[in-house]
Write a structure and sequence with these properties.
iron, metal ion binding, single chain, tricarboxylic acid cycle, SQR/QFR_C/D, 114 residues, membrane
């Protein structure tokens, strides 16, 4: 009784690919800021507003949220036996993740359109 897409290779692969992107992006940020760190709010806004950086940040946000969703979903499916409680936890988690993603994209959009 398994639903397609809820378990198996696809979520495992998505989580691994997102982890690789997250890792590479964090290394990129550490190296970049060690070499040339933005010093004030205007420097930060200019850095974020460049197209390559804003796209990389958006992809990072999507990767982190997708990675978190798969991880939390797997834990809930494995350790919450009550179907109603499982549905409630997954719904609340999904709402928080969607809300966080919308908030992050709004902040990124506002910075790139200044």
């Amino acid at each position: 009784m398994s639903s397609p897409g809820l378990q198996g290779l696809r979520p495992w692969m998505i989580q691994r690919v997102s982890a690789v992107y997250i890792g590479f992006y964090i290394v990129y940020l550490v190296v970049l800021f060690a070499i040339d760190s933005p010093l004030n709010a205007n420097d930060w806004a200019h850095w974020v507003a460049t197209p390559y950086n804003s796209i990389a940040i958006a992809l990072f946000l999507i990767a982190v949220l997708w990675h978190a969703w798969i991880g939390v979903r797997d834990i809930v499916l494995d350790y919450v036996p009550n179907v109603v409680a499982r549905l409630l936890v997954l719904t609340l988690t999904g709402g928080v993740i969607i809300g966080s993603g919308l908030w992050g994209m709004k902040a990124l959009f506002m910075l790139t359109t200044q």
